[in-house]
Each structure stands twice: as structure tokens, then as C-alpha cells.
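Q: Structure for this?
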Amino acid sequence: MIDLVRAEWIKLRTVTMNWVLVAIAVLFPLAVTLLTSYFRGDEDMDARQLLEVLTGSSFVPALLVAVIAAASITSEFGFGTIRVTFTATPRRARVLVAKAMVLVVSAVWLQTVVVLIGALAGKALAESQGSFIDFADVPTGLPALLGTVALAGIMALIGLGLGMLVRSTPVAIAMLILWPLMAEALIGGLLQLVFDEVDIVSWMPFRAGFSIAAIESFGGPDRLVAGIYFAAVGLGLCALGGWAVNRKDA
Amino acid sequence: MRCMLDLDRADSGTATFDGRRFRDLHRPLHEVGALLDAGYVHPGRSGRNHLRWLAATNGIGMARVNTVLEQVGLTAAADARLRSYSLGMRQRLGIAAVLLGDPQTIILDEPANGLDPEGIRWIRDTLSWLAGQGRTVLVSSHQLSEMALIAHDLVVIGQGRLIEQSTVAGFVAEHADTWVRVQSPTVGALVPHLTALGAAVTTIDPTTVDVRGTTSATVGELAAHHGVVLHELATQTGSLEDAFLKATAESVEYHSGPMGDPS
């Protein structure tokens, strides 16, 4: 398995587009957090505000991680390298597990770096402008930051799972954007009209998933339950995608 | 070939390599090297990185990557992105990938397709070199003139069914036409004697005829007996292509009609 993990890691880091997306994923939340800390630091900014900006902007890297994960498999189908991959390793499940491991670990590592730098540098910048930041003032701060990191890992699974199912990069990316932004609101809203006694909207996968990284609760399931539920959705998509890849001709 | 490599599910039957199915090979690159399409690469990667990830899957080191790059003559272009590779360069990279694990069995699908004459010569020499090392080289190709030059054994498939399996020489001998070419300044004097023997004579030009239904020995003896001077007496055999077309005539899916006058 270690050979396959090494191979997937080489694949991941030898595509320029992945580095462009990683650069955006790192720079966007850091830029938003650090600029906010700098320019609002003199307006008595507190830890809650800083953490809200940081966790809020960290949805972008999570989404980009999902895009990288989806493209890691859809590009294999698009360019035909999946046939080379499966000719080198005929046991397809092992390849897919190695791919998932590399993507999840990379996503978690990336988001950890973003969160750590954002929190520490944001605190330093805000305090340099006269604010006082004490993260201990926000009891939900650490769980939200951990949730942000977990969210990235789960989004990698969701991207990979979708990619395995649809096998097309544009379709996978469109689904990753439209599902959380539009489809869930529409479907959840419609279902809520029919089943008005059950809190369906809170159990929509992305809403539940995004709630694990929120400083302020969205309502609905608590953070741990929402995290487990969203991870189960990610793993379920991967299992379904893996089954499809195993069953179909390469 | 895709079924053999477990890429497609076969409706029936199994393919084995030394008694084992492909999916059961632990590190298949060490046993079977396959090139189905040289275009199966990520255009954004370099040739070296393409081989690196492939080598890593089977525990093959970087030194071997450099060795095969040198063997196929791609060392200088190894770090260029694959989108800048010509078809011939991609074909060379594909052969490098095949050689990575130093496999005993090599499977290639249309390796000379789209190549320029230099590339075709290179593929031909490479395949002959690989076979000369005692490896099994299975090549699928529609380029019969190329196959006639390099293949030893032949499997002819038409519409998914096995038509024949034999040596190239045996296949040609069985299916291709054979005739005797005779050239003489007085060939006209020989023709009545040949037809009297029951041979079919086709006039090529005033001094040359093709004779079917007899052997060159018989023609030579007949000419000597009647005092006809011969300038050429040779047994001719049809090409592998002729033999293939004859053998697969009933399996051809699309039959072309006469082209007619374009005007």
C-alpha cells in the first residue's frame, strides 16, 4: 500500500493546476483574515470576530480541496491514465483507497496550515493595531477550528466520491458548487414543506457539514454528530463511487 | 487485450499469464508490460514524472526510470511536459513504461500507428530486439506489411472470433496465391506447352508470363525440353495482406463497392 500512496502522491503534486488551486486555497483565507485583522484591529476587534472571519473564509480551501480531489480521478478517466493505473495495479480498490488517503491527509494538512497561520498571524496583526485577542474567550473557537480542518478532509472524500461517480471534471465541479449553494436549499426547502414537523434542512449534508466549522451554531445536530454524519456521507459517496469504478470497464 | 489486462470484463473465457489471471499478479509491471495507447498520459506532467508514478506503484526505483528513458532516447526531453511531445515521442515513452519492470511478456496495441517512417523503423527494431531477448511480444496491428517483417506467429481475429492461429509462413502458404513468373525473349513458344499441361497462363508483357497450377521445376524442365531460353524463373507468393484478405473475406463487416467515375 505504501507504494501506491507514494505513486498517488507523485501524481497529485506533479500537476501544475493542483498547485494553482492550493495557492488560492492558502492565500484566500489568509488574505481575508489578515487584511481584516489589520484594518479592523484598531476598532477593538475581539477573538470571536477574528475566528468568524477565519472559519468563514476557510470554506474556500475546503471547496478547492474537493475540486482537486474530484479532478484527481476525473482527469484519470479523461486522459485515459486510469487504464495505465489499473494495468500497473489491477486491484482497483487498493488504488482508490491510496488515492483517498493521500487526498484526505493533504487536505487536512493544508487546512491545518491555513488555520494555524490565520489564527496566529491574525492575532498578531490585530494586536499590533491595538486590539486584544484571547482565543480562550470563545469556547466554541477550538472546536470550530478543528471542525474546519475536518471539513477539508471530508470535502476531499466528497470530491473523490463524486469524481468516481460522474467521471467528468466539469460535471463534478459544477455539482460541488451547485449542490451546497443551490440544490440543498431547493431540495431541503421542498422537503421541509412536505415534512414540516421534521427539521430536514439542518440534515442536508453540506449544511450539516458546514456547521461543524461554525463558531455560532446553525441549529440542528450538534458539532460531533454533524461531523460524523457528513463524514458518513463522504465515505458513502466514496464507497458508491468505488463500487462503480470496480464494476465498470476502465 | 483490454480483457486480458482486466480493464474490461470479458463476457466469457479467461486469460492467464503463466497460469495466473492478470488481477492476481502481485506487481504486474515486472511480469507484463502493456502499451494500449501512447496517448494515455496527463499532458501537464513531464515524461519523467509519468514514469516515476508508474514505477512507484510497483516498487521500482528512480534509477530504473532513468535507464529506460535512456534506452528509448528520451533523456533530453524527459522533463518537458507531455503536451509538447510528438506522437513518436509518446510512443517511445510508452515503450519506456513497458520496459520499467523488465517484464517477460509485452503487449502492444497498434504500436506503429501514426508514426513517421523513422518511428516505424524504431518500433520494428525495438520489437525485434525485445523478442530476440526471449520475451513474448504480443502485438495487435492492422499494418500487415509491418507484421510480415517482424512477427513469427499469427493470431487472426475477425469480428471478435478466432479465424486462424499459425506461423506467418504457414498462414501465407495456406491462404495466399502462389505462381511462377517466367521471363524469356521467346516466351510465346513456351505458352502452348504450359497450357497443354493444364496450367493457367497470364501474360504480363511480351516477354513475361505468370503461370499458375504448376511448379517452377516443371516449367524449367519444359523450357529445357523445348529449347526455350529463360531469363527469369521464380516462384512468387502473395503477401500477408493478400492472405489475410482471403482468409477473412467472410468476416469483413463492411464491403466497399466500386468507386465509379467521380465526374
